[in-house]
Model the fold of this input.
Amino acid sequence: MKSLIFTTIGGLALFTAYSISAAEMSTEVPLELKNPAHTSPWQRYRTRKWKPSHDWKDFSNLRHDIPSPISQPQVVETPIQGDPEKGKKLAAERKRGGSCYTCHIMPDAKLPGNIGFDLSVIGLWGRSDERLYNYIYDARQFNPATVMPPWGAHQVYTPAEIKDIVAYLKTLTKYKGIDDKNNPAKR
Done:
């Protein structure tokens, strides 16, 4: 019992000795609001000026789990003429909430994901350009339960950027993970 008390007191002393204020953590301290942004937040969204709203469908919260509608298949001119180099950069870019590398195994990925398909040789799969385009645009067209974000339908990528990504994916025809040195059948 004594050791528990001493451990608790020691941990508390250590915690208070190393605690720092928010002002010490950052040079840019956020504005401190003394009052709420609205005196009556529940009355912010009104149906009429004199009556508070009881219809919360327009209120910004995540309680309503209503997914966006699945988009219709996009018609694109084939073969897609995109820039594979731009597509490679877009596939690796993580600035827009993720990238292909986040979920998929792809060449040159230092930290590849393990959620999606291995796309190392997707160029050999025989998928049409239009199918690849639509899968990136909104994969829910093919699998409504997919976890892949609808990159085009949510306008994360423009149609031209999706064409660049498709052009890059079509170049992936050689699996770079196994060469003769690493292939146990050829050692």
